Amino acid sequence: MKIKELSYSSSANLGPGYDILSLSHRAFKDEVEIEENNTGKIRIFSDNTPEDPMKNTAGLSLIQIMKDRKIKLGIDITINKGVPVGLGLGSSGASSSAAVKAFNKMFDLNLTNDEMVYYSMYGEIAACGSAHPDNVSSGIYGGMTLITSTEPVRVRKIDIKYKPHLMLVIPDIKIEEKTKLARSMVPKNIDIKDMVRQTSRLSLMLLGFLNGERQAIRDGMNDEIVEKSRNGLFPFYGEIKSMAIDENAVSACISGAGPTILIFTDERTNKNGIISGTDEILGKYGLNYKIVETEIVEGY
Question: By the 8 A CB rule, do 42 and 77 touch?
Fold first, then answer.
């Protein structure tokens, strides 16, 4: 029996929500198919992900489930990779969450969503060396998700009232081990005044999404801690965000560990102005890029 599941691309952090917020969108998707084999081993079939299960996000997640559930058999994992790698779009989390959903269905494990998030996050170890649940949480739940605890894993799906359209500005940049590098740049300690300001912005932004308050989202989606620490990687980001705001976008943020920039738009936004402005700004940096317009995935 073959079981196939999918997970969509996602954007983590959303400005002040570092490591606790994620948003699933329809821009790209991974499809993962699993099937028993008679080799007693886990085999990976994929054109552009590691074939070693210990180095593959989907493989590592299933290894952990099988270890905990004492399942001993051979599994073939076929990954049709649609979410581009290394662009801050939750690529590693899409593969692992799709694999976990398929495995859960195949063996009737009746895992809760939080348990599936827990196993999916193991795949992030293969990708960047640390298990973090933000992207995989929206890969399991869909929509906007909030991590309320990591030990144990607890996730809340946020029933947002304000649902903007999305524009992904995707610069053609490849950085070796980018996620690991970007995480290493985050400050280990911050001033209490910065913490208070960050907490205020996060609360205001969430209030805006919950109550449908456009201005609250715009005022809250600002981060002078994590995004600021990564300025050297994406020096064009501040210019693009300022330009998008001038064109009446709701707001903008770095998508995950970048370099993709997520711009929130609505009927008041001058999208053509954003497109021409992006071309001018990234042209100064000699960067090719593409813009993908998409929408939020509410659930699976």
Answer: yes
Q: Which fold does the domain 2-158 belong to in CATH?
A: Ribosomal Protein S5; domain 2 (3.30.230)
Q: Where exactly are the structural domains of the chain?
A: 2-158, 165-294
Fold topology of 165-294: Alpha-Beta Plaits (3.30.70)
Going through the chain in order, the beta strands assigned E by DSSP cover: 2-12, 21-37, 42-45, 74-80, 144-150, 153-158, 165-171, 251-254, 261-265, 289-294
Strands 165-171 and 261-265: antiparallel
Q: Is 277 annotated as a binding residue?
A: no
Answer yes or no: is 273 a known binding residue: no
Residues that are catalytic: 124, 179
Mean pLDDT, the chain, integer: 93
Mean pLDDT (whole number) for 91-108: 95
Query: What are the DSSP calls for 148-190, one per residue?
Result: EEETTEEEEEE--S---EEEEEEE----TTHHHHHHHTS-S--
85 assigned ligand-binding residue: yes
153 is in an annotated binding site: no
pLDDT band at 128 (very low <50, low <70, confident <90, very high): low
Compute the CA torsion angle 239, 172, 178, 204 (nearest 10 deg). Answer: 40
